[in-house]
């Protein structure tokens, strides 16, 4: 909560008032800027609270190179993942409790809160037994690092780790909409965080809903004539980079993920057939070859000239240098690519 590389002034003011210190006012880095900073050897420590940056970020080989250039990488993780294989000059993996595991601290059993897609906030308490008594919660790990680094002059970090209610009290004092946070967590089904627009309250200079239009570009990459534009997407059996299964009942794909969705007429125009294997290569002007190999064509009802494939398998095709104006969001939905029949490659299979 409150994690933002460009935190709003009101949040910083609330933190300064409540905790009696002056927080940094300069902006931090979004994902692309952070990776670029790592490549310039300007990152001493990367502390990752969960996640799988090596798989989630664009330009996979370059991202992996960036991670290995950090002085120290620290991963607070519930399970091993690809990022752990890309250590900095020194690296730590700190196993932590998952949300489904019981979290018992000095004051007793703890719960956290989650917000669903309907702006409902409710308590979440794990019931599974941890694998080892030495496992710590993410809260306890972060508070322990803060205690060792900052001491207790401003805040009793270990007390926060011992009783999460204290953390929610601080949230209530600094984040709008969370007044009486702890007591509201007892409401059956949680409490509604609110939505100004749903109540016809518009936080605009005019006090009214304001609409704007953006001109569509003639091409996603004007300097290149690309036969296809690729978008990356998730399957049904997937949450972010966590893949729970190989099926996608949304699109009728089962038991595989290395597939490329293409309009049947485009497949025919290439002299190929549904089910053929192809290689996909990004068309770029920076001289870097970005290619993924041996994907199976799937005939699909998609506009001609457009392609779709799953990520993170196709993240190597997304250039780190291409991102949205003003947002820094990688252009994972508009990648200019070419498609060619898969090259025959040596296999290690023995049967």
From TrEMBL:
Domain of life where this protein originates: Bacteria
GO biological process, one term: cellular respiration
Region span, Disordered: 328-351
Coiled-coil positions: none
Molybdopterin dinucleotide-binding domain segment(s): 228-334
Bias (Polar residues) ranges: 328-345
One GO cellular component term: oxidoreductase complex
Name of the protein in its database record: Oxidoreductase alpha (Molybdopterin) subunit
InterPro entries hit by this protein: Asp_de-COase-like_dom_sf, MopB_CT_YdeP, MoPterin_dinucl-bd_dom, Prok_molybdopt-oxidoreductase
Molecular function GO labels: molybdopterin cofactor binding; oxidoreductase activity
Pfam annotation, one family: Molydop_binding
